[in-house]
Amino acid sequence: MRYFKWAVIALFWLLVAGFLHYTLPQHDVARITDTYEKRIDPGENSWFWSQAASGDSTLATNRDVFFIQTRLASDGVMVYRNEDTGWGWPPYFKFDTANLQAEAADMRSTAADPQWVVIRHYGWRNEFLSIYPNAVSIRPVAGPDVTIVPWLNIVILVALAAVVWAIWVRWRRFRQRRIDPVMEDMNDGLADAGDRVRGLFGRKKV
Question: Which of 72, 81, 87, 97: disulfide with 132, CB 3.0–4.6 Å?
Fold first, then answer.
């Protein structure tokens, strides 16, 4: 039972970590190689696409989506989608997809004359599931070795850790004051009942 308890706890925190890793902003230093527009048809992976573009009331069965192709500073390749988040989740309140696509197109460069940018995004890239991280903003940087400090992520994670710690401390105090005494009384009552049963059978044997 103890192993099951720890397995459930580990699974819970694994899901929390996955949720945070998908939702919190990430930064990639890259060189934009191309921008294009493609018609997509969300299917089983529809959870990983924006639910509706700004101004639309529902998610169309198929629609045109902007994409940004890049070459990362680590020499890998990354493709980003460029969709509005609107008022939905994650709460990036992104409404400037067309403007961002124009900025990305203007920052395209070649390996011979690279222009490095920092792409702020959320989400994952998975070729098997055909899902792409969503670009939120783009800004030019001096070079591929620029250091990006994720201040927002640090603040959010520290605040989350403080909330979890506060809840755990209050739960521990509540348990010590209310639950543990009740459990001790129950255990004492069961022990007394066991003693009486053993004493009753002991007298019968005599």
Answer: 81
> DSSP code of 179?
I
| End-to-end Cα spacing for the chain | 40
Q: Rounded CA gap, 56 and 87, in Å? A: 12
| Reported pTM | 0.80
Question: Would you call the peptide bond into 90 cis, given omega within 30 degrees of 0 as the criterion?
Answer: yes
Report helix, strand or coil for 23: helix
Query: Which residue from 86, 78, 29, 16 is spatially nearest to 53, judged by alpha carbons?
Result: 86
Alpha helices in the chain (DSSP H): 2-23, 97-106, 151-174, 180-205
Contact 36, 135 (CB under 8 A): no
Site of tokens 């003693």: 195
Element (H, E) at 46: none
Q: Compute the distance between CA of residue 1 and CA of residue 140 in angstroms, rounded to an integer.
A: 54
What is the model's pLDDT at position 37? 96
Mean pLDDT of 121-128: 95
